[in-house]
Each structure stands twice: as structure tokens, then as C-alpha cells.
Amino acid sequence: MYICIKLISMNSFTEENYLKAIYKLLEKESVVTTNAIAEKMNTKAASVTDMLKKLADKKFINYQKYQGVSLTAKGEKIALNIIRKHRLWEMFLVEKLNFKWDEVHDVAEQLEHIDSDKLIAQIDHFLNFPKFDPHGDPIPDANGKFHIQKSQLLSELKKNSACIMTGVVDHSPAFLQYLDQAAIGLGDEIKIKDIVSFDKSLQISVNKKNSLFISNEVAKNILVIIK
Amino acid sequence: MYICIKLISMNSFTEENYLKAIYKLLEKESVVTTNAIAEKMNTKAASVTDMLKKLADKKFINYQKYQGVSLTAKGEKIALNIIRKHRLWEMFLVEKLNFKWDEVHDVAEQLEHIDSDKLIAQIDHFLNFPKFDPHGDPIPDANGKFHIQKSQLLSELKKNSACIMTGVVDHSPAFLQYLDQAAIGLGDEIKIKDIVSFDKSLQISVNKKNSLFISNEVAKNILVIIK
DNA sequence: ATAAAAATTTAGACTAGTCTAAAAAATAAT
DNA sequence: ATTATTTTTTAGACTAGTCTAAATTTTTAT
Ligand SMILES: [Mn+2]
Ligand SMILES: [Mn+2]
Ligand SMILES: [Mn+2]
Ligand SMILES: [Mn+2]
Asked: Which of A7, B51, B138, B164 is the most exposed place for a label (fewest CB within 10 A)?
């Protein structure tokens, strides 16, 4: 008979946030710089360097002075778990507590650090194991696996194409509120009626009903899959 | 037209925990000592003194060197809000996520610090505004008001009295698990069939069905109201 | 009333995380 | 191939919260 003691040296919120930031930067670029992390974390490069040393000591990142960083398997696992928790909590807030999709992010930033495997497993179950969050972003499973939707920008489609909205690029409340007001949401069918050559703005129909104009800037922040 | 900016200098988790600890100590004694706080917070008296100075600066407590502390209205409000959140989260975990009453406390210790008025209002609504938590403790409303059940200890009742269980004194998982196993829970009707004069242990019946013996020590940790 | 014991506070040190300013390294421009 | 610019790291300092050890105050016991 064996006794298991939970020694696990919990990671601080700060460490978790750095790992998440690095993960998200790695989604865009293959190498992540000190300055990029500083900007994302709203902190100074000197502070980042200090933290990188600590994360490297703990084997969460690969780091050599001046060479940028990448995540180790261990670090990526932690980052994906934080992202999983963030997105499940966002889904919970929208599905069960009547939050709007523009209201959930800040609360989820706090909830993602709650440390309880049972809690997150039960939330997942309660929500019936959703695969995507309220913004269309994939929710990693307990092993860090997730589905990628190979979507494209609405701004890249040609006249007369039809598509389904699957996500957003800009996650700001301002943009999300604009979409609400324009009655454009995830899962909606969007048809491009016309593209104004002067400014690339689009005339679209949503769910075969309302026809409206959106700017190219807006179209560049809407992710879709072609029907 | 006015612009409102949320300046509110958020209180740290640590400050919140100190205020909650002081509140709970004040429920028992009218004056709270440095050592009592140190014991409850699992810290040293010197650390407590440092924190008391800070809490007094912020006008959360009344504090004079060597004289013990009490809460100001401001401090009590914060403490009650933390307790409200703690108990609502415990209720949520039990009612919606299939947690047992012995599993909720540690998670609620984390969740109670999540800072979102809307979140806690919605959880309250979602649970249909419960008045008591899974352990029978009252849940303060948004203004800090709550119902007190004037209950007594089961160990204080006489032979042949009947009562309803309303709470527990000891909240430890070990005790709660014992009650589960003995099939004694909140709301159950308990009748005292006999009191063994030798050791004050009790023979009781629960919900008119199962008859069993419990020690005086157990009876001293069960809160009831007489039927 | 005085001495002993207990409780509390102060002093000084430590860690995590942050900052500014200065030094060092890498990159870009001539 | 130097020089200039940008990026990154180091050095030193600050805050929140904690600790141990020592000093001080209060309480208890004689
Ligand atoms: Mn988010
Ligand atoms: Mn999201
Ligand atoms: Mn509790
Ligand atoms: Mn409780």
C-alpha cells in the first residue's frame, strides 16, 4: 500500500499568465521575443527577462539569452490547461449565467486560475463537453487536444460566395457589441451580395434575411468557412 | 453628463482573508487578538501585526496597539461579501456540479475572491436565492443581511426530544463524511431515544427510520432546532 | 507591589514580482 | 567594416507579504 502526497508546487497566477502569453504568441510566430511578451503582458522587458529565467529553471520554456523562447512540453501543457479553463468558463458564463459574449473575458481571466481538476471536469460535463467557446475558439480537452477549424477571413471571399461565421479575430467588447447590434453572430450564414471596389466594403445578407453593409475592416475580423 | 471611472483599489486576497478571519473570530468573542488571528490564518503574530497596521490605515478595522481589533462598517461589509461569495459558490458546487458537502470548502476558498458583481448576482439567481449553504450556514444577501437560525447543540437536548438538523459545528471533511456514512444530514428529523448516562452517548432515530448510536462528541457538533 | 509569564510589537531579513537606468549584445545601415 | 539603432540583459531599488529574534507591553501570579 502506497501513500500519495500532493507535492505539486503550484504555479503562481503570474507564471500561468506568462506561459499563456507565450503560447498565444507562438501561435503567430515560431520564435517569441522578450519585447513581444512584455507588450502582451503589459509589463517591461526587464521584468520579462527575470521571469524567463524562472520559467527556464522550472523547465517550462526553452530559453537562451538573446535567443527568444519556446515552450517545453511541460510548459505547453500548462498553457493549454489555462486556455481550456478560460474558454470553458466563458462558455459557462454565456450558456448558464446569461452573460453576453463581450462580457465574459475579464471574469474568465480570473476564473482560469482556479485550481481544481474536479471543478473543471464538472463544468465541462455540465456544458455537455463543448468544442468551441462563445467566440468560436477551440476548447482543448483534458489532454490538450483540440479541433482546428480551417477558417478564413470574410474579407478574402469573392462576390456571391456564401459562408458560415465561425469566429472573430478582434475579441474586443467594442467589436463584439458592434456585431450584436448588426445581428451578426457565430453560426450565421453570410452571403456576399456585393463588394464596393472603392473601399472594399461589403454588402452582405445574414441568414438570408437582413441585408447590410460592413466595412472591409470589419470583414477582416470575421472568420468564416465556405459553405 | 458625468463620467464614472472605477478607481476602486481592489483588495488583495490576503487582505480579504484577514478580514474574513477577523469577522469569524468576532462571531465568537467580542474582541479579537493578534494571536487568535495568527492561529486562524496559519501565520505568525508578527505578520499579523504588520497586516493590522495596513487594514487600520485603510479604515477596515479599529486597531490600537496591544488592544485587539474590531471591524469597521467598511471592513465588515467586505468580510460579509467574501462570506456571501464563499457560501454561494459552495451551494453552486453541490447543487449544480455534483460535489459532496465535504468537497466544496477548499474550492470555495479560491472562488470567493473572484471579483465580479454580475457573476455573483447571476450565481445567486441561478440557485434561486438560497438562504443557507450546504452546511446550514446562512448566506448574506448583497447588503450583508442574513437569517440566523437560533439552533442549539444536539448534545444539549433531553431524552425523547425531537428536532430537525440545521447545521454542523465542525466543518471538517472527516466529520462530514462520517455523517454521510451514518446517513445523518441537514433537514433530517432526529429523535433522541436514549442517553447513556455513562458517557452521554445517544441512541437516536433519523427520519423515523434508522436507529443508531452516536457519541456525545458527535452530538456536540450537530446543530438542531426543536420541533 | 513586584516578579514571572504571556502577548504583542519592532527590527531586520527574505521572496516574488515589478520598475528605471545603464550596460551589453544583436541587428541594421552606411 | 564600422557605426548607429534596436533589443535584451543586468544592476539596483521598491512593495506586499512573510519570517525569526529581540524588545516592549500587558497580564497573571506571588
Ligand atoms: Mn477570453
Ligand atoms: Mn473566448
Ligand atoms: Mn466553507
Ligand atoms: Mn459552508
From this structure: A7
C-beta of residue A87 within 8 angstroms of C-beta of residue A129: no
Block residue for cell numbers 490576503: B14
CA distances A178 to A81, A182, B116, Å, are 31, 6, 24
Superfamily of the domain at B152-226: Ferrous iron transport protein A (FeoA) (2.30.30.90)
Contact yes or no for A44/A38 (Cβ under 8 A): yes
List C-alpha distances in Å: A169 to A175, B161, B168, B214: 10, 67, 51, 62
Over the stretch B167-199, which tens digit does the pLDDT of each residue have?
Answer: 999 999 999 999 999 999 999 999 999 999 999
The Cα–Cα gap between B137 and B17 comes to 18
> Which of the listed CATH numbers 3.40.47.10, 3.30.70.20, 1.10.10.10, 3.30.2000.10 matches domain A13-71?
1.10.10.10
Residues around ion ligand 3, judged by CB within 5 A, are B 105
Identity at B100, one-letter amino acid code: K
The pLDDT confidence band at residue A227, using thresholds 50, 70 and 90, is confident
Q: Judge: B118–A110 Cβ closer than 8 Å, yes or no.
A: no
A/B interface, count of CB pairs below 8 Å: 39
Please report the DSSP string for B134-197 in residue order: TTS-B---TTS--PPP--EEGGGPPTT-EEEEEEES---HHHHHHHHHTT--TT-EEEEEEE-T
